[in-house]
C-alpha cells in the first residue's frame, strides 16, 4: 500500500514539474491577415506612394500624378465636398481601392498607355476644381489605406443611393462571376438622409426606344409588346424584365435606356400605355457596394470611416500600403 502511495506521489510530482503540459491546450493564435501588394504596374520602393499615368479625357492627354492627388480629384467629383468627414474619408478609401483593384487586374487601360482615366465610363469621375480642405483632410487621414479581402483588393463598387438595402453584384450589375463574399445586401439609413427630391423618380420612354434597347442587349425583337413584367427580383430590385415574351437583364436595360433617366432597377411594375412605357422607382445607381447617402447617414450618426467601409463590405480589412 505504501509503495502504491509512493508511486502515485512520484507521478504527481513529475507532472507538476512538467507543468502538466499533457493536459494543457495551446492558446488560440489570432488569424493571419493576408496582405495585398501594390500592383506591379505602379510599384516602386516598398512603402513609397506610387505615381499614376492618368488619361485626362476632357483634354485628350495623359498626365503623371501622385496617387493621392488622383484620389483627391476622384473624391471631389464623386461626393459632395461639404459632406461629413467620415463619409468623405470612406469615399477616399473606396476610390483608392477601386483604382488599385483595377490596376492589379488590367495594368493599363485597354488601348491607352495610362493606368486611370477621368472618363467615368472607363474608370472613375475626376474633378480637381472641386477639391477643398475637407477633401484634402479626408484623403490625408486615410493616406495609403485600401480595403483588402484574403490578400486581394476588393471590388469597391459604390453608387449614390441604394433605396434602403444594397444589392449583390449579380443582381445590381448583372455580374457574371461568383458574387464576392464581402458583397451581400446591407441595410443602411440612406432613406432617412437622402434629399426628398432624390428619393423617388419616374421616367417615360417610347415603346420604340425600349424595343430597340432590348434588341441591342439580347438580339431578340420583342415586337409590339403590350406589357413588361418583373420576373426576377432581389429585395424589391428588379433583376430580370420580361418585355413581351423576351427576357432581358434589368441592369442592362437600365444602362441601354440611360442611367440618368432610369435611375435604378428598383421599380414598380412598368406601365405600358399606347406608345409609351413609364418606369417609377427609387434609388440612384446600381446599388452595389457603398451607398453614398447611407455613408453620409452613418457618418452623421457617429460611425468612423473604417466602420462605414466595413459595414458595407463585411469581412474586409483595411491595409496601409504607403506612408
Compile the SSE list and pairings:
Elements: H1 2-17, E1 51-56, E2 61-66, H2 67-78, H3 85-106, E3 116-117, H4 133-141, E4 145-149, E5 152-153, E6 158-159, H5 169-172, H6 190-193, H7 196-199, E7 200-206, H8 207-218, E8 228-234, E9 237-243, E10 246-249, H9 250-257, E11 271-273, E12 276-282, E13 290-291, H10 292-300, H11 305-312, E14 317-320
What does this structure look like?
The chain is of the alpha+beta class. Among the domains are: 51-156 and 289-320, no CATH class; 197-282, no CATH class. It is 33% helix and 20% strand. It contains 11 helices and 14 strands. The chain has helices spanning 2-17, 67-78, 85-106, 133-141, 169-172, 190-193, 196-199, 207-218, 250-257, 292-300, 305-312, and strands at residues 51-56, 61-66, 116-117, 145-149, 152-153, 158-159, 200-206, 228-234, 237-243, 246-249, 271-273, 276-282, 290-291, 317-320. Strands 2-1-3 form a 3-stranded mixed β-sheet. Strands 5-4-14 form a 3-stranded antiparallel β-sheet. Helix 2 (67-78) packs across helix 4 (133-141) and helix 3 (85-106) runs antiparallel to helix 10. The chain is globular. The termini are far apart. Residues 1-27 have low confidence and may be disordered.
